[in-house]
Amino acid sequence: MRNIKLKELSFALVVTLVLIETQSSLALSDDRSELLTKIRIQRTAIKRAGDQLNSVEKGIAEADKTLNVIKKTLDETGDPELVLDDLAKADRILKRIESTINFISTQTASIEAVLKTIAEIVRESGLTKLETELKEAFTLLDETNKRLRSDEEKAESVRKAFGQVADKISLALTAVGRSNLKSVDETGVDAKIVFVEDGTTLMVIGTATGLDPAETYFSNIYDIGSASEGPGACVPSIFDPKDPDFILPTMFLGFWEVDADGNGRLCAINTNDGADFVPLDKIGTVSVRLIVGPPPAPDAPPMNELVACGSVNSRPRP
Asked: Are 191 and 288 in contact (CB under 8 A)?
């Protein structure tokens, strides 16, 4: 009888051990399946980033082609007014490219962080069968990052070429306004802005120093009664919509692009669509402003501080 009970206990112990081993195996299987799904989700995200880079590369080619058309037109005609639309087109394309590149860069950094976390879990859990899937995902990510870096360099090269062409056009046009903006309250920001206007289009090109790459800056223009110095520097002076020199709704020029060294570039083209075109002879001053907070109310501009201001000296079109 005792032998029978021992045998029963031994059998029960074996069954229990088998159940524990089976449950452990199932748990590992579940973990492996879950992690495999996560790895494949990241691979899909990497492939999407690759598709977005295809769009970036097409945009770079389109912007470069547009700049070549501009150069050819200038060489053949010598008339900068003929290329303003193409210049605005190239600028829009480049801004879209730069925005997409920044998005992809953030996306790939997030994917890499997730894959590294999964790799750590795989090592600690001994799920070696997933290592091949992980290796393939990391390889795909490395290839995508190499493309991203290459596209960043190409986009920067085209942006520099755009700046050279824009500078050439601004000097060639006859109606020219210039402003040397001085630092306000010792902010250390100085800027030079060139305005060109042909009666239907106002083109603005600016360079600046002393900007903070971590901050966001924009420029406004102000009416002919505005001051360039003192406590009332770069603020509107005409508020009556019936006044022919009223430009309050169309003050905004654009945002500055700032490099890692704090050098800024502004390019804005405002066409006569009944909303944003301002003739050069209605502009008295121009500012550089730093965004310091969100809009205080709906439809209001963001909270900002004046960091540089200057008067606009212009020569009218013949």
From this structure: yes
Cα distance between the two ends of the chain: 122
The rounded distance, in Å, linking the Cα atoms of 142 and 148 is: 10
CA distance linking residue 173 with residue 176, whole number of Å: 7
DSSP character at residue 280: G
Q: Give pLDDT tens digits for 200-237.
A: 788 898 999 999 999 999 999 999 999 999 989 999 99
Contact 232, 294 (CB under 8 A): no
Residue keyed to tokens 């990391």: 138
- What does the DSSP assignment read for 252-264? EEEEPEE-TTS-E
Looking at the whole model, is its pTM more than 0.70?
Answer: no
pLDDT of 130 reads 85
Rounded distance, CA 155 to CA 161, Å? Answer: 10
Tell me the DSSP string of 19-43. Answer: HHHHHHHHHHHHHHHHHHHHHHHHH
Cα 297 from chain centroid (whole Å): 25
Place of tokens 């290329």: 83
What three-state secondary structure class fits 72? Answer: helix
Q: 2-170 in CATH: which number?
A: 1.20.1050
DSSP letters for 130-164: GHHHHHHHHHHHHHHHHHHHHHHHHHHHHHHHHHH
Nearest to 271 by CA among 205, 198, 208, 217: 198
In the CATH scheme, what architecture does the domain 175-315 have?
Answer: Sandwich (2.60)
* CATH 1.20.1050 intervals, the chain: 2-170
How far apart CA 286 and CA 306 sit, in angstroms, is 11
3-state secondary structure of 16: helix
Tokens 């309250």 locate to: 185
